Amino acid sequence: RGPEAVRADLAGRHVVISAGGTREPLDPVRYLGNRSTGKQGYALARAAVARGARVTLVSANSELPAPAGADVVRVGTAVQLREAVLKAAADADAVVMAAAVADFRPAHYAPGKIKKRDGQEPEPVALVRNPDVLAEISAERARPGQIVVGFAAETDDVLVNGREKLARKGCDLLVVNEVGEHKTFGAEENEAVVLASDGAETPVPYGPKEVLAGRIWDLVAARFE
Ligand code: CTP
Ligand code: CA
């Protein structure tokens, strides 16, 4: 089935998608962030609207235009993203975690701008762990039969790490991307393997993020049936 052939196989479903990358503030002007642009999550949201779903898009710091027909909830940090995803997931049929969630955040937020001082070495930045949203929603499904999808960007031993991550997170599907210089971050196209908890592997050849989005919804819709 080509990406242009659209059927309403997600009609009556509520799907929640997180997209973009979280930013963890150090002080009022600085943050720890990552290179995610939100393209894959926004493509998933547009595709789900086209297939008839009610879509909640939890968007972390993306500058992309809001997809027509989706409810967009804007968040900044991982803690805010967790809150928004958990709230929306309460009545969701599927949750897709496409956002790049910071694993750590600064242990302390400086309410005033951190200044340098002559002759003084900078203070090291202490970090603490952020909540793992994907593991949490996978472990405590808000609804029986809710489908949970995670993403993983890996640089080495992509499939081995992907299988291990799928098991550790407890999600139904894990979309594994190989990250390299021209792949994934900010790119229009990527290549992935979708790993399923039942052992199935669906390779998606190098191509537009829209096509990968379509394949992901195909796999989710098949699990609804
Ligand atoms: N994720 C999440 N909460 C976090 C970190 C990650 O929900 N605090 C989600 C991401 O949205 C993604 C999946 O978990 O769907 C995998 O993210 P990844 O960074 O690859 O996994 P980690 O468990 O953080 O492992 P790593 O140490 O390789 O970063
Ligand atoms: Ca991580």
Automatic annotation (TrEMBL):
GO terms for biological process: coenzyme A biosynthetic process; pantothenate catabolic process. GO terms for cellular component: phosphopantothenoylcysteine decarboxylase complex. Pathway: Cofactor biosynthesis; coenzyme A biosynthesis; CoA from (R)-pantothenate: step 3/5; Cofactor biosynthesis; coenzyme A biosynthesis; CoA from (R)-pantothenate: step 2/5. In the N-terminal section; belongs to the HFCD (homo-oligomeric flavin containing Cys decarboxylase) superfamily. It comes from Streptomyces himastatinicus ATCC 53653. Catalyzes two steps in the biosynthesis of coenzyme A. In the first step cysteine is conjugated to 4'-phosphopantothenate to form 4-phosphopantothenoylcysteine, in the latter compound is decarboxylated to form 4'-phosphopantotheine. Catalyzes two sequential steps in the biosynthesis of coenzyme A. In the first step cysteine is conjugated to 4'-phosphopantothenate to form 4-phosphopantothenoylcysteine. In the second step the latter compound is decarboxylated to form 4'-phosphopantotheine. It catalyses: N-[(R)-4-phosphopantothenoyl]-L-cysteine + H(+) = (R)-4'-phosphopantetheine + CO2; (R)-4'-phosphopantothenate + L-cysteine + CTP = N-[(R)-4-phosphopantothenoyl]-L-cysteine + CMP + diphosphate + H(+). Residues 15-225 are annotated as: Phosphopantothenate--cysteine ligase. Binds 1 FMN per subunit. This is Coenzyme A biosynthesis bifunctional protein CoaBC. Its EC number is 4.1.1.36, 6.3.2.5. Residues 10-222 form the DNA/pantothenate metabolism flavoprotein C-terminal domain. Its cofactor is FMN; Mg(2+). One of its GO terms (molecular function) is FMN binding. Keywords: Decarboxylase, Flavoprotein, FMN, Ligase, Lyase, Magnesium, Metal-binding, Multifunctional enzyme.
